[in-house]
Amino acid sequence: MTPANRSLYWIGYGVFLELIRRKDAYVLLILMSLFFLGTGVIGLVGIENQETGTFLLNLGLTLAYYMAHLLLLILIVRQIPDEIENRTVYPLLAKPMSRSQMFLGKWIACTLGGIVSLLVLGFLGWIPVPKGGAYSWPLLFQGLVLLICSLAMLAALAGALSLLVPRAVALVGLGLWFAFGSQAIVFLRARAADGAPEFLARWLTAYLPDFGKLNLITRYTDTVDPQVTALGVGEFGGLILYAAIFTALALVAGVTIFNKRPL
Amino acid sequence: MSGTKRTTLLLAVVAGAFLLSPLLSLNLNPDNYKGGASRDEFARQKRNSSAVSQLLGEFRTNISDVLFIKTERYLHGGIAYETHMSDSDLKGLSGETAKLEQHQAEVGVADHEHHDHEHEEEMSATLIRPPSADFRGFIGSLQRAVKPWQNPDNPHIHTDGTELLPWYRAMTTMDPHNVRAYAIGSWWLKTRNPEEATAFIREGVENNPDEFQVWNTLGNILYYRATRELRKDEPDREHYRELIREARSAFETAAGLGLDARPKGGPTGENILLWNDYTEEDLRSALRMAVLLEERHADPAEAHRMAVEYERRVGGDGILRRIIARTAPDQEE
After folding, report:
1. Which of B52, B173, B205 lies at the smallest CB-CB distance from A42?
2. Which pLDDT score, from 0 to 100, does residue B154 have?
3. What's residue A143's pLDDT?
4. A62, A80, B188, B221, B237 from B89: Cα distances, Å
5. Between chain A's N and C termini, which has fewer beta carbons within 10 Å?
6. How many whole angstroms separate alpha carbon A237 and alpha carbon A25?
7. Which residue of chain B comes nearest to A219, CA vs CA?
8. CA–CA separation, A77 vs A81, rounded Å?
9. What are B81's strand-pairing partners?
10. Distance CA A80, CA A258 (A)
11. What does pTM read for this prediction?
């Protein structure tokens, strides 16, 4: 292992330790465990109909989706600002590591932390609901891949934004955008339709990151209706590319800001 | 390649990809698909009537549905009546908007003249029981005293609906596929702020492009705005024509989608679960408006062709038949 890779490893290890030491992670885990137990009990008693089972599955996966993203957001917005504030950034950069490597290392580590949280929480939301083969496995796989892309995109955006604005602003701003961004985009498009040319409004709002596009949970639980199927290869690949473009842009912006920022 | 050149190239690739990204993202709509339990009104009713749902909250687990109940309470001055959400008439919007028009007429905010009919008061029971049916004695009296309540035999109190509007915003934020919330919310907005009503229903169209009822509502609101424009002292004719053109297009889209969604035979037999008389009424309204606007504002020959086609597919529509007779080529001659 080269010294730079070793440094990246230690950054990742530090982020992982921070994740498992945080109270937030345990609070979310306890909440999700309560859902797991509650749904498990309901499952033992017997779920009356497929529609209620579908509702519980959707609820569990949606909770896991929001919790994993929230945890990731809380984790990443503190990373570099805290290192700068506590002056621990100096010994880190004194190792053979550039600022770019440090930023990317933090992003990779936080994204991996988010993926682990998503898998643990998602498992707790998915496993207790009796499924009886009613839901699409390919769509579950596609949904999982896109959720991982969504975590990577959120981590990159939050990492870059945390270097520009105070942590709390980055946390609340991106948190709100994550939760309501899709609706805000539609809101803007609908209001522009009466004035500016519709195509222009659609084009400009397409520059805003839309996390809703990467959330296939409802589509997955809707596959109980055979009309609803998995995404085509083109659309699935397009969504991965969509997330990759925003992630790459945010990473480039983050690295540039961090490189130019006086410590 | 040097490090600087590589970095510049990387930056150029990322910037280029970002600038062109709308080409990609505008064609990616994984949320637009037909069918699905989350959008099926009857799956929703089954889900909401289950014991699990009742345990999880106020008989309606879907947050958007809980908000719908809230609007009903606000409409009745805070008094909780047994709701009608499971009534099949809510599958169609015309049933619901007809009730709301009665409410508006009562509180004097409607600008319609057609409310001369007697308001048939709903005889819904209140959730808090009246003294004659309440076994709880003092506890029941206390609840009736501290919570909004009135004897269900008395005429319902109806508010003017202004305070309902934020609930429709919340409902559609929680569930962008709640077509009913978009349609009824924009209907409430229509008389107060028609431009905002249009923007609101356009959101509904953006989120539910395959639902004929949002297109039908968009057409209705645009047509309402056009007629208002014409009633002004100095109407903007160009704006009027533009609104009519958009309304015509919306009704035509609604007609196409509605005809595709309509089960063979319409609201009969088992179909009634998916397509009842009110849904049929919504569709026929869209068909008639599409044809009428085409006849009056575009091409009567095309209107004739549309009317013949629509009548062939739905059958037994007196209005369409009259239009067919009126616009027949020999009539024009």
Report:
1. B52
2. 75
3. 96
4. 31, 57, 19, 22, 39
5. N
6. 32
7. B31
8. 7
9. B126
10. 9
11. 0.76
ipTM above 0.90, yes or no: no
DSSP A222: G
| Residue B168: closest CA among B233, B126, B217, B226 | B217
Residue B61 has pLDDT above 70, yes or no: no
pLDDT at B284 over 50: yes
- One-letter-per-residue 3-state SS of chain B: CCHHHHHHHHHHHHHHHHHHHHHHHCCCCCCCCCCCHHHCHHHHHHHHCCHHHHHHCCCCCCHHHHHHHHHHHHHCCCCCECCCCCCHHHHCHHHHHHHHHHHHHHHCCCCCCCCCCCCCCCCCCECCCCHHHCCCCHHHHHHHHHCCCCCCCCCCCCCCCHHHHHHHHHHHHHCCCCHHHHHHHHHHHHHHCHHHHHHHHHHHHHHCCCCHHHHHHHHHHHHHHHHHHHHCCCCCHHHHHHHHHHHHHHHHHHHHHHHHHCCCCCCCHHHHHCCCHHHHHHHHHHHHHHHHHHHHHCCHHHHHHHHHHHHHHHCCCHHHHHHHHHHCHHHHC
> By the 8 A CB rule, do B80 and B126 touch?
yes
A90 and chain B in contact, CB less than 8 A: no
Nearest CB to A213 within list B22, B28, B37 = B28
A51 touches chain B (CB under 8 A): yes
On chain A, the residues whose CB falls within 8 A of the CB of B24 are 238, 241-242, 245
Query: Which tokens belong to A156?
Result: 């990159």
CB-CB under 8 Å, B43 with A206: no
Query: Is B267 in contact with B275 (CB distance < 8 Å)?
Result: yes
Task: Say if A66 is an interface residue toward chain B (CB within 8 Å).
Answer: no
